[in-house]
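Data deposition worksheet. Section B asks for the primary sequence of the deposited chain exactly as it was used as input, without tags or linkers unless they were present during the calculation. Section C holds the resulting structure in token form. Section D is free text for depositor observations; keep each observation to a single sentence. Incomplete worksheets are returned to the depositor.
Section A, Depositor: J.P.
Section B:
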Amino acid sequence: MQAAYENFKKECKKFLLNAEECRIYDDYLRRFAYGIDASCYRYIPKLVLKPNNEEEVQKIILLSKKFNIPLTFRAAGTSLSGQACTNHVLVVCMKGWQRIEANENSLWCDCGVIASQANEALKKFGKKIGPDPATINNASIAGIFSNNSSGMCCGVKQNSYQTIKSVRVILNDGFILDTSDSENLKEFIQTHQKLVDELLSLRKEILEDKELCKEIERKFRIKNTTGYGLNTFIDFSDIKDLLNHIFIGAEGTLGFVSRVEYYAVEDFKFKACALLFYENLSLASLAIKTLSKNDALVSAAEIMDYACLKAMSHMQGLPQILQELKEGNCCILIQLEENQKELLKNNTAFITKELENIPTLFGINFSFDEQEQASWWKIRKGLLPISAANKRPKSTVITEDICFEIDNFARGIEGITKLFELYNFQGIIFGHALSGNVHFIITPLLDDAVEKENFAKFMDAMVNLVLTLKGSTKAEHGTGRMMAPFIEQEWGEKAYKINQRIKKIFDPQKLFNPDVILCEDPQIHIKNLKPSHQIEDYLEACMECGFCEKVCPSKNFTLTPRQRIAVHREIKRLQSLKEKSKEQEEELENLQKGYKYFVIDTCATCSMCSTLCPIEIDTAKIANSYYNNKASKKELFIAKTLSSHMDKTINLAKFGMSMLDFGSKILGQDRLERLSFKLNQKFNTPVILKTMPHKNSYTFKDKISNSYFEKNENSASVVYFSSCLNRAFSTNKRPIQEVFESLCLKANIKLIYPKNIEKMCCGKAFKHYTQKEPSLNPLHFALQELLLCSCNGDIAIVCDHSACSAEILDKLKDLKGFEKLKIYDMSVFVKEFILSKLDIKALDENIGIYSVCAAKKGGWADSLVELAQSCTKAKVYTHSGTYCCAFAGNKGFINPQFNQNALEDLKNHFKKLEVKKMYASSSTCELGLSVATDKNWEHIIYLLDEVSSAKTIENS
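Section C:
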């Protein structure tokens, strides 16, 4: 078998490996990292492949067939039942699979498109896709389709099964089947007559068995993703419809889903939500029955038990009444939606009246506030990782997904609660109550033999309970490995054999995702469960859900945040073993060998991951702690010397820039850049980019005020804390200090420079040392100066580099004595205090902007957009899919490939647009953006100054 893998790998390298990129991974660290998904299982693939197009997938499938090598296809890896992991070959299809085409009736998407991006494309038509899982901001279209994921609102009315228009699939012989193309369909029927005949014959057999048809109809009235979609055979007769639907919920076991086309559904303009609190689940169940009878008006009803509410009681955006809840209380989050506000109000009044006889704890109060609603839904959608954060140390998160008929909903929840008690698990219960869909979480210690046995018994008992109540053992998370052993028990021998025949028709060699849906091992669901090991508190709660990955700039370069945490945890686990096998010794050695590059050096430490993590885990802390722990006495001494003599440090940096300019004149800019890249590859020295800034010759000598306490009562004032970077360098011949002075002059705002501005720094440049040696952080000195020159916080303070602004604002949260300081990023200050005081002669040309990660995290990204919109009559373009440029201070000089990889999509986006003027708000980021787009980027205030003049009396 090993020889077959080697030959398979050799053939794959011919098209996945070249001088520019490697898209085939066989090193242990990346195989381990990519083996991670959101489920409770741990499988390490023998090989990871990342094809970019259908032709490459065809080759992989044909090679798989030739060498008898099993394949598992994956996109985002947010599946929960073990269907996206493998110990064979993992084929990851995200990068390169991002095309979307939408119209008012439908849209098609490549398999790697995130569902929220699909909705963004439909937004202008007032439409959305039907499925709306909690992972909609992270899950891929192909994953949602292949799991038949539904979610909060869609139930069984708007899931993939009901809204599919066409599908494009690569079959086991490499044939690309496209059901949207009639000619392709004809060709398929001609070349695959045997397959077509077998499908139609199977349908005929099913229809002739009236008892089986009746059972299929009953089971699919509620959510059901256990096994294949047998309802396909009784709902459709046309071969196109059969093919469209049979791949839904097949979890990649029948072929590779390359593209999906959905009919769009209405995205109503107005929504109303209410949090209904009940004394117990019995009363809540009565409310659910009432709501389900009115499901034409109610789009969602999400139930959360007391344990859920307790887990999220500390989250921002939830009402204070959560603190008043008692054991046994529960909550239902309901949503109504309409296109007419008055009709929505009438509907909420009707539902309120329908529910009024069922006593609530705090009454029925609907919110029409979008922001409040969004905060509630954000927490509900993040409930799985939020609840998992409270797991016991060293425990494994197990999440299950079952469904009951509404009449049995209360009995089902009561039964699950009793099973918790019987097998000694502290579980939590939540779910899509309107559909009778229950999710629950338990966290067993699988290293403990008793708890592991209890988990196995619990699963058996749960299946018996669900089937006794005529429910589904899988509602929307897919069968995966978790429920594979129970399909025959749920469906019976006859239907189980039909499942086996479906698999054989499409995948006779059983090479597509083996052990998923159908498995001969009755214990597969309790094997290869993730081992757990307690790590640092700030990382321990990670359950590897993958919510963080979308915003990570290194996701297509090295690792993602959850992968970094998983590698970090595994190293700690292996190190803790008192006795290691030879294999474990080798695994540890391989993980440690690649740790610094993959986990530390290629983490941008932007902390964007924390913005999407429901429990705000900041993976950047791994790298920051590493650097601090590894800092030597010599490095600390140098850092302290530089930080306590910032004026001399800046002068040294200016001298360096002068030398670079001199070298550029002697050698030529292109030659100097090429030489620096060669040295970088050999010695890891900084590169010299074509867009390198110049020495900033601006002097503060005549601008610094001798008295901070003289305030001009007739004009506003502002303290200007110019960052050390912008004092040393300038990306424009005109220093940014002059530009801001010009704007303040036009707006009649008195500008004050701190007396010791040349010695001030926010401390961000020293973050690799300040944890270990806090005294070397120059921020405290800077804040004392700002307190003095702002008249104890009476005068606003502005910083001209968004990364520095964010650093100051972040550190101020934990520092006492500086609460009165009013710090603004320059883009925010200019928008709020200067823009209205200017006359603008707007340009008639398109503007490109990029809101840097610091602005996104800080919540002022819109300031840049508003400033740009004020400066042009034409369009303002941005790229919403780039969350961080990964220049990351000095990393853009040390590892320029990282920066350019992070900006690849932005580069391609702006290449298609007619945009010449580009603006951001951080000079270092602007360097990388300039290289990527081959256009000059600079601070947004350069544009504003260009188009503005002082407001005349007539216009004021």
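Section D:
The longest strand covers residues 270-278.
The two ends are 81 Å apart (CA to CA).
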